[in-house]
């Protein structure tokens, strides 16, 4: 029972540290909003803080640190679908342009 209690304490400590980091990053977000930065700098800082906060939430509260293999397969599948969705319009638009070149440019008159 002692090992389970110690493991539970370690997990609780980890979650509390992540929660503290999220609180600090929220304070940083509010603090940065008080400064008069240019728009690109403000957007960059906001994206950086939001990215770190999102990563903490995804890794620890959604338990994605232990799912590394599955995440890589899902990422590879997303890349495959993304490339497919980029290629399909290119293929179809080249067929349309080639098929209507005579109407567009007066070819063959």
Proportion of residues in extended strands: under 5%
Q: Quaternary state, please?
A: single chain
Number of strands: 0
CA-to-CA gap between the ends? 90 Å
Low-confidence stretches: none
Helix amount, in percent?
over 70%
Radius of gyration: 25 Å
Report mean pLDDT, rounded to a whole number. Answer: 84
- The H/E string reads HHHH
Largest sheet: none
Structural class: mainly alpha
Tally of discrete structural domains: 2
Shape: flat
**Tally of contiguous helical segments:** 4
Q: What's the short version?
A:
The protein has 109 residues and is an all-alpha fold. Helices cover 84% and strands 0% of the residues. It has helices spanning 2-33, 39-61, 68-99, 101-105.
Overview of the structural elements:
By secondary structure, the chain is an all-alpha fold. It has two domains: about 1-65; about 65-109. The protein has four helices and no strands. The protein has helices spanning about 1-35, 40-60, 70-100, 100-105. The longest helix is centred in the N-terminal third of the chain and has 32 residues, at about 1-35. The mean pLDDT is about 85.
Q: Would you spell out the secondary-structure blueprint of this structure?
A:
Layout: H1 2-33, H2 39-61, H3 68-99, H4 101-105
Helix pairs in contact: 1-2
Features:
mainly alpha, 109 residues
